[in-house]
Design a protein that fits this description.
It contains 4 helices and 8 strands. The protein is of the alpha+beta class. Strand 3 and strand 4 form a beta hairpin.
């Protein structure tokens, strides 16, 4: 049994809404994954991934949430907390947006809302891991007060580990 509160699964900012996954998100999530340039999973595989994410959320009390622009109502990516390379006690903050949404401050805005949600659970620290090549994501983390902890080498290259204490 976790000693932490459950993370809020609906967050709103000035321009964004972060909410729980729906099966109808599968096509958009598939398109986002395809932007990575390594092929696209099937819609069915993407639906299975969403179901696994929802099951993990029920178990851990933390969530990766779809991000929509408030006025337009369109899915632009995801942001939230995951176990990833870390632990449920000190999870990772993760985010990914469509390229068309880059450079507008959406990742920083969404991640800032998730930081508040993480603090509300009673957690004291978060992690994030980012490829050394991903300068825009590194800038987002630095704006949010994350500090470099160490670098590891993985199959896909070097990864910078960041950490941030929560109030």
């Amino acid at each position: 049994m976790s000693t932490y509160e459950t993370m809020p699964f609906h967050l709103e900012t000035e321009r964004l809404v972060l909410r729980p996954w729906a099966e109808s998100d599968a096509a958009e999530l598939r398109a986002l994954v395809a932007e990575r340039g390594k092929g696209a999973p099937t819609v069915e595989h993407t639906r299975e991934g969403i179901a696994k994410q929802l099951a993990a959320t029920a178990t851990t009390g933390i969530a990766l949430l779809p991000v929509q622009r408030r006025d337009e109502g369109d899915f632009i990516g995801y942001c939230g907390l995951v176990i990833g390379r870390a632990t449920v006690e000190e999870p990772e903050i993760a985010y990914e947006l469509f390229q068309r949404a880059h450079g507008r401050g959406y990742a920083t805005e969404a991640a800032s809302a998730v930081l508040g949600a993480a603090a509300a659970t009673g957690r004291r620290r978060l992690w994030s891991t980012v490829g050394t090549w991903n300068t825009p994501s590194i800038r987002v983390l630095e704006k949010l007060g994350f500090e470099r902890d160490h670098v590891s080498t993985e199959d896909n290259g070097e990864v910078v580990w960041f950490t941030r204490s929560l109030p």
